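ARCHIVE CARD
Drawer: 12
Card no.: 0347
Subject: one protein chain, sequence and derived structure
Cross-reference: see card 0346
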Amino acid sequence: MHGYQRRRRKRVAEINVVPYIDVMLVLLIIFMATAPMITQGVKVDLPQAEAEALPEDSETPLIASIDAEGRYFLDVGDNSEQAIDLLELAGMVQAKLRITPEAPVVVKGDANVRYDAVIQLMATLKASGVPTVGLMTQPEQ
């Protein structure tokens, strides 16, 4: 019985990675589908019913306004009655924030303005480096 030797098979010590690849592909598809929904939207801290006034010792606020026709204005302490476009507004806000980075930024919108115009303004302010944006309200009579 010398002629017949039983060979021992070498054990295979590899991990089957195919199920892990399947799980990773499913997760990739889920993240690809949900990522656009997560990035869209502007975070806004809405004022309470009774909004607080700005503190007296704060810097002069930058007031970005939208009138009923959807025209944009920027008031940096002096009354500016000339409408500007969003790119010009962004440049003016960036220049003001370089000088006084702690200056509050407030959005003042007409009650009848389109919601899209307010969102465009807030997105422009965020892209200009404004950390937080306040919404100007009028006290109830």
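Annotation on reverse: The beta strands are 62-66, 72-75, 105-109, 133-135. The CA atoms of residues 64 and 74 lie 5 Å apart.
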